[in-house]
Amino acid sequence: MGDIVIGIPSSGVHSNGFSLVHKVMEQAGVTFKDPAPFSANGRTFGAELLTPTKIYVEAVHELLSQTDAIKAVAHITGGGLIENIPRVLPSDLTVSLNADNFNIPPVFGWLAEEGGISDFEMQRTYNCGIGLVLIVAKENESMVMEKLYYKEKATVIGTVKPRAQSAPQVVVNNFSTNLKFVQRSIRSPKKRVGVLISGNGSNLQALIDATRNSTMGIGAEVVCVISNQQAALGLKRAEAAGISHTFLSHKDYTSRQEYDLAVSKVLEGFNVNIVCLAGFMRILSPEFVQMWRGKLINIHPSLLPKHKGLNVQQMALDAGDSESGCTVHFVDEGVDTGAIIIQEVVPIYPVDTVTALTERIHKAEHLAYPKALRMLARGIVQLGQDGQVIFNY
Ligand code: GRF
User: CA 132 to CA 10: how far, in whole Å?
Assistant: First the structure.
């Protein structure tokens, strides 16, 4: 088995001393004049450029002290991916990275476009969204990922291969397509998202946090939250985030269709483009599903098509499954039957209780839902006429 490349997302542009410039300007009380004509996720590109570098010691220190599974670590600073990774790579090896597996933050799309910077120069100068790279033996992948995935949103971004003579030491596949998606999304207005909940709303929180994180470039914002339960904690989360929220009791309506129509009215009032179900404990009428077809997504705590409906964590344990996870899917007229956008897998351990498994799945959900929303908001994924998912890579 070969080695793999794990990437930890960056927090800033990280190169050419921008964070130093920031500090000096701050000390001198100089106000930065933003050269950008527009802003990303509410922050100006000037502010993005001056975001201080994240120091990854905390993230990897524990790992390095506990295991010798990490073969090499490269901090991606000035010199970008192309010049930093070879610093930790023997000359007879090359890494093949896949830009589909990491987020290129909007600021890089803007820089490339405004500066007319080529893909090669982007990769040679900027971190392009990857702040730290770890080289790990394939057999240690799950162990390392378990420690870094939820905490650091790390992903496997490539593989290490033998290097043919005079071949480059770093190749980033699908870079151009992903950069174009980013550029398109900065130019287009953010998609307006309505979230339907009935309870806790931890997935709602994950969506709010992700859409407000300017490096993630989700291309969407949560504009309204609707709950059919007055006591739902999710309503308080919306309140705390300053997002408009409405309690609509289904008990005040005589039919499912009538209730759903009232929900639709609220969503339309906010010019919602995408509806996310996040623990909304109601079956939707065919009319509602038709109306929002292709714009309506749900998160479910199992690896569909396995275990549909309620109490699915118990079902997975009863079935003796060795793994479970979550699924984000388009909603159709059936219960948990719509076309799948993405899934996240989590292990099931023999000692697991429903509570432990539910908690593990929740962590996976909080990464999966924003990812799926990003794919839909940016047009990376869409629902075809035949009810199948179309991936526009
Ligand atoms: C999640 O497990 C989701 O998959 C299911 O309902 C639960 C909602 O949890 N549809 P929360 O309210 O987002 O915490």
Answer: 7
Catalytic residue among 14, 75, 300, 366: 300
**Are the C-beta atoms of 73 and 147 separated by less than 8 Å?**
no
Does ligand 1 have an atom closer than 6 angstroms to the CB of 219?
A: no
Q: Are the beta carbons of 306 and 343 closer than 8 angstroms? A: no
Q: Point out the ligand 1 atom lying closest to the alpha carbon of residue 365.
A: 4
d(CA 239, CA 82): 44
Tens-digit pLDDT string for the chain (393 aa): 699 999 999 875 544 445 544 554 455 554 544 444 344 455 666 776 677 667 788 878 888 888 889 999 999 988 999 999 999 999 999 999 999 999 999 889 988 998 899 999 999 999 999 999 999 999 999 899 988 988 889 999 999 999 998 899 999 999 999 999 888 888 889 999 999 999 999 999 999 999 998 888 899 999 999 999 999 999 999 999 999 999 999 999 999 999 999 999 999 999 999 999 999 999 999 999 999 999 999 999 999 999 999 999 999 999 999 999 999 999 999 999 999 999 999 999 999 999 999 999 999 999 999 999 999 999 999 999 999 999 987
Its pTM stands at 0.87
